[in-house]
Write a structure and sequence with these properties.
Two copies of one chain form a homodimer. The first copy, chain A, has 16 helices and two strands. In chain A, strands 1-2 form a two-stranded antiparallel sheet. In chain A, strand 1 and strand 2 form a beta hairpin. The first copy, chain A, has two domains: about 160 residues, Farnesyl Diphosphate Synthase, CATH 1.10.600; about 140 residues, Orthogonal Bundle (Farnesyl Diphosphate Synthase), CATH 1.10.600.10. In chain A, helix 3 packs antiparallel against helix 4 and helix 4 packs antiparallel against helix 8. By secondary structure, chain A is mainly alpha-helical. The mean pLDDT of chain A is about 95. The longest helix of chain A is centred in the middle third of the chain and has 29 residues. At the A-B interface, helix 4, helix 6 and helix 7 of A face helix 4, helix 6 and helix 7 of B.
Chain lengths: ~325, ~325
Amino acid sequence: MKKLEDLQVIISEAVDKIGFPQYPAELYEPISYILSLGGKRMRPALLLMACDLFGGDIDAAIPPALAIEVFHNFTLMHDDIMDNAPLRRGRTTVHEKWNQNVGILSGDVMLIEGYKLMMQVEDRLLRPILDIFNNTAVGVCEGQQVDMEFEVRNDVKIDEYLNMIRLKTAVVLGGALKIGALIGGADIKDADLLSNFGEYLGIAFQLQDDILDVYGDPEKFGKQVGGDIISNKKTYLLIKALELAKDKQAADLSHWIALKQFDQAEKVEAVTAIYNQLEIRNYAEEAMQIYTDKAFEALDAINLPEEHKQYLHDFADGLLVREN
Amino acid sequence: MKKLEDLQVIISEAVDKIGFPQYPAELYEPISYILSLGGKRMRPALLLMACDLFGGDIDAAIPPALAIEVFHNFTLMHDDIMDNAPLRRGRTTVHEKWNQNVGILSGDVMLIEGYKLMMQVEDRLLRPILDIFNNTAVGVCEGQQVDMEFEVRNDVKIDEYLNMIRLKTAVVLGGALKIGALIGGADIKDADLLSNFGEYLGIAFQLQDDILDVYGDPEKFGKQVGGDIISNKKTYLLIKALELAKDKQAADLSHWIALKQFDQAEKVEAVTAIYNQLEIRNYAEEAMQIYTDKAFEALDAINLPEEHKQYLHDFADGLLVREN
């Protein structure tokens, strides 16, 4: 089994070598630019890992892995326009560096380039792999749409939230693993189980992210603690708190959400205090545990040698105990 | 051979029957909306026609034909955002009726839905047809990018212009015909020839459109005569005039292009007068004739019964002598 870090390096080098046409420059330069901004290349590395797990040839999985990375960056390019984001990984976003039309159109062509890369598989896998890719891509779009709708709603339910993060974040992990597994020679049953493992793990990971935003060690977490609270982001924690808060707590929470001008530290402290009173962290950790358990349950059922399953187990542990 | 009008009706009915998910509504409603705005359904009808020409089963060609129509409407949805267009076929554009983010994201999912429909072909055709679709889709994006760049350039060359209209308008006609031909049972050589026929015809048709905008009978043409002149659109006529005009003519032309405030009728009259002095219409008609000849040359070489070729010949004649 290759180490995940080694797979990430393989992907990074392959990303640098993707050749796009020179003309028209404003269509293709933004693609090279956003891909050059880096990132952990986690999704494509997982695709290679899945191929490797089932004893497949990693080289054969590189183009589809690149497809997943190109697709992911297409969603970032369009999401940045929709979110009006000035920065991506500390660098100017495409629509700011060029303009919005360039961001829309380069993104469009990236999605097509993703399909072209994904088609570089053997004929017998072409249809099943494209079916997975289609479902993944549609899921991500649906997730982004639902996420945008959540911004203007205060009645989001926990189930809706879990479905949104599944679509927006988790299906692409499941899809990448499933495609890699099929290339590696897995049968459809094992590929589905591995996909479930990835999807559940993705949900658990997002729930952990929600928890760490409030309760993480800022030095290890690498983000501003309370960022979600400051921006009223509908996380598991806020949705659960809105569901449970009564009387004065409910009034206080609504007050902080409605407030346009506030001291950030004060808001974070006040909302965290409400979370603490309602024991929101426990609920969130329980939910996270449920999805972690589901992930490991799927993993256990896969027909793979124990040491390969242990590899995935260790990977999941590393991901989920990033720190807290 | 089925009549083109009958094929258009078949497509219109099939478009009405495409079922998209209900949730999230803001993602899928705009797709049904833009598809409901109508249009001539020419591209998908041509795909069916190509299938019919080679004796294929039209029913098998309907999903790919719908894919072409969904793809075309995806490009319209995104182009309308880029062009800041308030109306499409006399109705509010998607980004105006909902908002820009909805237009971007619904367009993205339409492109994916296009792939899903295009994949509804038999296995042996899946890869060749998707290759054609990819090339078509990339071409349209490249054409749109180049067209946007032309808006801010005054040094566009005729060859660049012909390449732009090929990419933006003609490749999708060629692609639709080629896909239909393959489904109909054509060999790759005949499919390529039919594709060339469509591409050359598309270029000739666009050149005719440029000519009719200035010299067409407004009642028959159905658009405001001189619209391109008023908006300084880089058509074959304007580019050729900029190339040929010398001294006072060149100065006059530049003057009218630079003018921000003007009487529309006066500008149309003045620029048309320059076109007339330079005999621009002759040049444009010659170019149109060259591409028409190329189209018929490709048609002649196709291995089809004479009456089927005559059908295509009549179709082309109908398209190109719309009126002038």
